[in-house]
Amino acid sequence: MFQEVCQESLRAILEDRWTQDNFSVTDVKPPPFYYREEWNDVREENVGSMPTRHFTLMMIPRDLRISNCFRVPFVSESERDVLVVHLPVLENEGPDKPNGILRLCTTHLESLDLGYEYRLRQLAAISALLKSELVQGWKVYGGLVGGDMNSTLASEHDDHRNPDIDLRDVWEDELAPTPPALRPFYKDFTYGKDLGNTWGYQSKGRLYQDYGSRLDKFLYTGPIETFPVREAQDITGRLGRFGLGLKTRVGLNDV
């Protein structure tokens, strides 16, 4: 599941041989941007004429069959939507044909503190999608959404419990480790991982509590079993994790 894919990164993904050999890449055409709050402001001649600058993408292993793939637009000021993929599944093991689907979604909810009201409505719309009982005659056994939920406000970490949403957070399925005791504003990777933070590790010179946060989440509904995946260990001489701490030069600044 990818968020904020641009045209350049899309080309790199599609041209990669490993990707071509092993994955089906979903909905590679950038969606049009006309998802305004005031629908009356959209002129008919402009609808669909301008692609989004950034969009979402999913790479599904080729040994998994996809029965449907589509996008659902949000009321948004930031070109946001949810990408939906249907995976046919069997209720029980056996040689029978699939009789239901697992609904997978990825999204990038509205950004910044001012986008909170949008995010709450967008998450409620996703919840309704995940909880659909029947889709074109297929039973929906469960649903999962992963992506950048932009939970910039502390209160948002409880939004999935809102009665209008009512989803489970994968992070909460297992007791989180106790963060190490640190000096005020002192941070390290262990502390951030124990908090479940997915963003803000490299915000040097800024207050950690403002920039370290668990923005990215997996939320689900239905009989889905979750289990923890521990930090990859490089026991075979191959990389288990890459990119963390790397820098590149953009203009005059290292990022």
Automatic annotation (TrEMBL):
Its main location: nucleus. It comes from Fusarium euwallaceae. Keywords: DNA damage, DNA repair, Hydrolase, Magnesium, Metal-binding, Nuclease, Nucleus. This is Endonuclease/exonuclease/phosphatase domain-containing protein. Its cofactor is Mg(2+); Mn(2+). One of its GO terms (molecular function) is nuclease activity. GO terms for biological process: double-strand break repair. SUPFAM superfamilies: DNase I-like. PANTHER family: TRAF AND TNF RECEPTOR-ASSOCIATED PROTEIN, TYROSYL-DNA PHOSPHODIESTERASE 2. InterPro entries: Endo/exonu/phosph_ase_sf, TDP2-like. One of its GO terms (cellular component) is cytoplasm. It is found in: Nucleus.
